[in-house]
């Protein structure tokens, strides 16, 4: 079994990522750490606990940072809806499981210490929790084999013209994580946008005829409708594309480069600036995703969702 720690701000594409992991043979979730991002932390916690009850998760769930290292939290609720799930009338059933009493950074540190080999963290939101982990336990950098992150962009942004949402929310955390020497692999917007889902994918999950298939299908359709209210557009698969980089090795291609997050630009705060000309202009400090094998990503993600739904 390959155990993964997932750090998440629990919108629908985060949930789809967790489900893809639990639905893929050979992979398991060791724990979830929650971070404010898509929505304020109480909403993120509520989504995680409702999901745990609905899908029978037994791994621990830990509350983390309620806001970025610097400044005020800006959420994506204007796009994703109040519950950050764009659930169009469908909501996850009420929570029954409880949050762990241990905070995210403490729990993640304990897991890293106990791991027999350098461990993999999948981060699907702002990197606040990971930066706080490095502030409190810098010696644990060596215990992290890879930090796979959905965030940033080597092209344009989405939250602003220059910045992807996860990067925009907490750009200082990106630079702290890099300064700590963590082996960061960035799967940015430009790569995720190569992988598309549409209403037919939601229909296929509903056609399984199970309660979970109906729920995941309805939530997926709400997600697709972010791209167009009539449901006819295709939508980029964000967090699950980064997840597929782990579940289906080779489905995402990476190139070493030097990465820095812009923290002060008036129009460019949160922009992830990639210097590809390494080592001529700078030393590589990250692996940056460049291309996605869309069929391979879709196969592992939608296959995982279907396995959970059956
Ligand atoms: C990222 O922002 C969030 O809204 C999604 O969950 C994803 O992590 C895409 O920019
Ligand atoms: Ca996310």
UniProtKB/TrEMBL annotation:
Q: Which organism is it from?
A: Ramlibacter agri
Q: What's the protein called, per UniProt? A: Nucleoside hydrolase
Keywords tagged on the record: Glycosidase, Hydrolase
Q: Which domain of life is it from?
A: Bacteria
An example Gene Ontology molecular-function term: purine nucleosidase activity
Provide one Gene Ontology cellular component.
cytosol
- State if DNA repair is listed as a keyword: no
Q: Could you tell me which PANTHER family the record lists for this protein? A: INOSINE-URIDINE PREFERRING NUCLEOSIDE HYDROLASE, URIDINE NUCLEOSIDASE
User: Which residue ranges does the record assign to the Inosine/uridine-preferring nucleoside hydrolase domain?
Assistant: 4-297
The region annotated as signal peptide is none
Q: Which GO terms describe its biological process?
A: purine nucleoside catabolic process
Q: Does the keyword Oxidoreductase apply?
A: no
The record's InterPro entries line, in alphabetical order, gives: Inosine/uridine_hydrolase_dom, IUNH, Ribo_hydro-like
């Amino acid at each position: 079994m390959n155990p993964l720690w997932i750090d998440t701000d629990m919108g629908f594409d985060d949930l789809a990522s967790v489900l893809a992991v639990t639905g893929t043979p050979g992979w398991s979730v060791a724990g979830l750490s929650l971070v404010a991002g898509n929505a304020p932390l109480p909403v993120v916690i509520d989504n995680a606990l409702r999901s745990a009850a609905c899908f029978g998760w037994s791994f621990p769930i830990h509350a983390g940072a309620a806001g970025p290292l610097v400044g005020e939290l800006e959420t994506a609720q204007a796009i994703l809806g109040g519950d950050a799930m764009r659930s169009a009338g469908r909501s996850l059933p009420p929570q029954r499981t409880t949050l762990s009493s241990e905070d995210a950074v403490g729990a993640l540190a304990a897991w890293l210490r106990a791991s027999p080999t350098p461990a993999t963290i999948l981060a699907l939101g702002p990197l606040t929790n990971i930066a706080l982990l490095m502030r409190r336990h810098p010696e644990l950098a060596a215990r992290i084999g890879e930090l796979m992150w959905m965030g940033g962009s080597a092209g344009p942004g989405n939250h602003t013209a220059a910045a992807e949402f996860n990067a925009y929310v907490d750009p200082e955390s990106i630079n702290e994580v890099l300064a700590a020497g963590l082996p960061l692999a960035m799967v940015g917007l430009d790569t995720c946008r190569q992988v598309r889902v549409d209403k037919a994918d939601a229909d296929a999950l509903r056609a399984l005829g199970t309660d979970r298939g109906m729920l995941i299908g309805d939530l997926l359709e709400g997600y697709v409708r972010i791209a167009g209210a009539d449901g006819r557009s295709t939508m980029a698969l964000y967090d699950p594309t980064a997840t597929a980089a782990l579940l289906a090795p080779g489905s995402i291609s990476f190139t070493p480069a030097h990465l820095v997050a812009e923290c002060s630009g008036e129009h460019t705060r949160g922009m992830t600036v990639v210097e590809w000309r390494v080592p001529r202009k700078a030393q590589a400090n990250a692996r940056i995703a460049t291309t996605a094998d869309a069929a391979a990503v879709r196969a592992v993600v939608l296959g995982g969702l279907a396995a959970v739904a059956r």
